[in-house]
Design goal:
The structure holds two protein chains of two kinds. Chain A is an alpha/beta fold. Chain A folds into two domains: about 150 residues, 3-Layer(aba) Sandwich (Rossmann fold); about 90 residues, no CATH class. Helix content of chain A is about 35%, strand content about 10%. Chain A has twelve helices and five strands. In chain A, strands 2-1-3-4-5 form a five-stranded parallel β-sheet. The longest helix of chain A has 13 residues. Chain A is globular, with a radius of gyration of 20 Å. Chain B is of the alpha+beta class. Chain B has two domains: about 210 residues, no CATH class; about 110 residues, no CATH class. In chain B, strands 3-2-8-9-10-11-1-12 form an eight-stranded mixed β-sheet, with helices on both faces. Chain B has a four-stranded antiparallel β-sheet with strand order 7-6-14-13, with no helix packed on it. In chain B, helix 8 packs across helix 11, helix 8 crosses helix 13 and helix 9 crosses helix 11. The model of chain B has no long low-confidence stretch (mean pLDDT about 95). The chains are: A alpha/beta, B alpha+beta. At the A-B interface, helix 2, helix 6, helix 7, helix 8 and helix 10 of A face strand 5, helix 10 and strand 13 of B.
């Protein structure tokens, strides 16, 4: 809150997503009241029916663009917000629904729906940044609630959010986990994935799934070579790269290149 | 200090652990933990794991059965003891808002009494390197200093080398020359026996409390001969005396491009290295701005933010980051601290998921500078 008592207006918008990321905001528990006290929540259907008209200081956008309607709506959201922050793998990379980008979506609609005529959808699931300028992308499937608090706090006081872009391995080693890629030859996306989860899966003896998407300067091509040497098949490697962040270009490229090896 | 060397068996080893625990030390030693030998808390000698060896190669670590029932046969533990002295994350200070002003509260460094038990000569040398940087440079690290003062070091000399070991060429092992309170050399002649040598007054006082016979000259000689055999097993090496010259001459070598393509820039080498000391500080504030914290975290020269100065990062390519790391470790460390930054433990080779080998990279630069 600024000294004159003005509370920044915050709106939370949903596109194609599971709602898990915006629920991370409600999941803040101990910090929720402090966050809620510092801002005015103007639009957040998961939390309240209250609607306050824009313009907004901060728009948190969850989900990817998958319909004509949403492609238009995101333009309105951008116009209504001073700062637009995308939250989660759907909004920043297209989400797991971007797997359709390698398929014939019309055929899938015919297979799945009894009355395909009612379905109006785009061929691709795309991240928000492909449609409008985005001020900050918060990664994760779902986002980490402490990142969300840090991001909101930093935005409110006008400083850079302290959210690292380096690998999961940095967190994994700091936490004292044993490297399962080296000690067991397990496929692990940690070396190409952005930190943020606290190296959750390796702590439970499972390779990183890449929920936070490609890290800065991710060398997915080199990691493909490592996984092949450790005995993963091309098909397995492709599936490793094609999950929640499949359409992020580094993972997308690696998943396409592996077929040619 | 009188040079003291005694000989004892497992009973003496048990007694040593009990004495350390009796003096309030938390004993941290090598033990089987999941699929690796790791440094972990030791309650008694029963926690130590005899008969285990480790097979290491670039990017690969596997536990394996040992040819004998040695307790200290497995080579360097998966991680170095660095984290016990130079914490991966520590809170440095807190600021609280009070009556319109800030009150800064500095945290007093926490320093548990820790006995690093059975650590390898390379790791003992690694601690000496950290001492030089964090205690004997212009700025002392108070947290490190507090922990270091509370540390007791029991080294275990190596009688076997792992494939990625190259301590002999770095002159840090397989037998520790200094930097320990007690150094053990294990023998198996039907039963396990130990040559225990004191390296400090603290160590001598501890040994004096153990029922043991003085070590005869031939036992000392036979024990040390095992370390020489371990040295002869090593196939990797770095000529650290020439390293500075070789690296400075080859700053634009093609080899850096090749390794830059293989390198994941994940930071595993620096995190595993017993001497990499770089940290970053992270400030945070509570949403109501009543509370702020400054924390220190292990950082790595492989991150983009590491070389961030006003306007951007200086080292944007992975190639330039790998070159920075290797040339600091083997060349510029000498300019800065008067010794080499590498102790030859081989962890950066073993724990690099891509299997990049510092000795091989250096050899490639070296061979072209000779031709």
């Amino acid at each position: 809150m600024s000294s004159n008592g003005y509370k920044p207006k915050v709106a939370v918008f949903k596109f194609a997503s599971c709602d898990g990321c915006q629920l991370s905001l409600l999941d803040c528990e101990d910090e929720l009241l402090a966050v809620a006290a510092a801002i005015e929540i103007c639009y957040f259907p998961e939390a309240t029916r209250k609607v306050v008209k824009g313009p907004y200081d901060i728009a948190l956008v969850e989900g990817s663009v998958t319909t004509h309607h949403d492609a238009q709506r995101i333009q309105q959201v951008r116009r209504s917000a001073k700062t637009l922050i995308t939250i989660g793998a759907c909004a920043t990379a297209g989400g797991v629904q971007a797997l359709r980008n390698w398929q014939d979506s019309a055929e899938m609609v015919r297979t799945v729906y009894a009355k395909p005529d009612f379905i109006s959808t785009l061929k691709m699931s795309t991240p928000i940044a492909e449609h409008v300028p985005v001020d900050f992308e918060l990664r994760g499937c779902p986002v980490q609630k402490y990142h969300l608090i840090e991001l909101i706090t930093a935005t409110l006081i006008g400083r850079k959010p302290n959210i690292p872009a380096y690998s999961v391995c940095m967190e994994c080693k700091r936490n004292g986990n044993l490297c399962i890629a080296v000690a067991q030859g397990e496929p692990c996306l940690g070396p190409v994935t952005q930190a943020g989860c606290g190296a959750l899966c390796p702590a439970f003896n499972r390779g990183c799934y890449g929920c936070f998407g490609p890290m800065e300067s991710a060398n997915a091509e080199a990691l493909t070579g490592v996984m092949l040497r450790n005995g993963s098949t091309k098909d397995e490697i492709q599936r490793n790269f094609r999950t929640y962040n499949a359409w992020a270009w580094q993972f997308r490229q690696a998943s396409e290149e592996v077929e040619k090896r | 200090m009188k040079k003291q060397a005694v000989r004892f068996d497992d009973t003496g080893l048990t007694c040593l652990i009990e004495l350390l625990r009796g003096e309030g030390y938390e004993v941290i030693g090598p033990r089987k933990s999941g699929p690796a030998v790791r440094l972990a808390r030791i309650e008694s000698a029963a926690d130590l794991t005899p008969g285990i060896d480790s097979e290491t190669s670039p990017g690969r670590y596997r536990m394996a059965g040992a040819p004998d029932a040695r307790i200290f046969g497995a080579g360097p533990a998966a991680e170095s003891p660095k984290r016990y002295l130079h914490a991966p994350e520590a809170r440095l200070a807190v600021a609280e808002r009070e009556n319109g002003a800030f009150r800064i509260i500095r945290d007093t460094p926490a320093a548990p009494k820790t006995a690093l038990f059975g650590i390898r000569p390379c790791d003992v040398a690694g601690i000496a390197r950290l001492d030089r940087v964090l205690l004997r440079d212009r700025y002392k690290d108070p947290d490190y200093e507090a922990r270091r003062e509370q540390t007791f070091i029991v080294a275990a000399n190596c009688v076997r080398s792992s494939e990625t070991c190259f301590c002999a060429s770095m002159e840090t092992g397989p037998r520790a020359a200094s930097g320990f309170d007690i150094a053990l050399t294990e023998s198996v002649n039907g039963r396990r026996e130990y040559l225990a040598e004191a390296g400090s007054t603290k160590g001598a006082a501890m040994l004096a409390q153990i029922k043991a016979e003085p070590a005869a000259a031939d036992f000392v000689k036979a024990s040390h001969a095992q370390c020489e055999a371990a040295s002869a097993q090593q196939t990797r090496s770095v000529d650290y005396r020439r390293a500075r010259k070789v690296i400075l001459r080859n700053f634009e070598h093609r080899r850096w491009d090749a390794v830059g393509k293989r390198c994941l820039a994940c930071g595993n080498c620096t995190m595993s290295c017993p001497t990499c000391f770089c940290v970053n500080t992270k400030d945070s504030s509570s949403p109501d701005l009543s509370h702020a914290e400054r924390r220190r975290l292990w950082d790595s020269c492989f991150t983009q933010a590491f070389s961030y100065i006003h306007g951007g990062s200086v080292r944007t390519s992975t190639k330039s980051r790998y070159r920075q790391w290797l040339s600091h470790k083997l060349a510029h460390w000498q300019d800065q601290f008067g010794e080499t930054g590498c102790v030859g433990c081989g962890r950066c080779i073993t724990w690099c998921p891509a299997g990049i080998d510092i000795t091989e990279e250096f050899a490639a630069l070296d061979s072209s500078s000779q031709s």
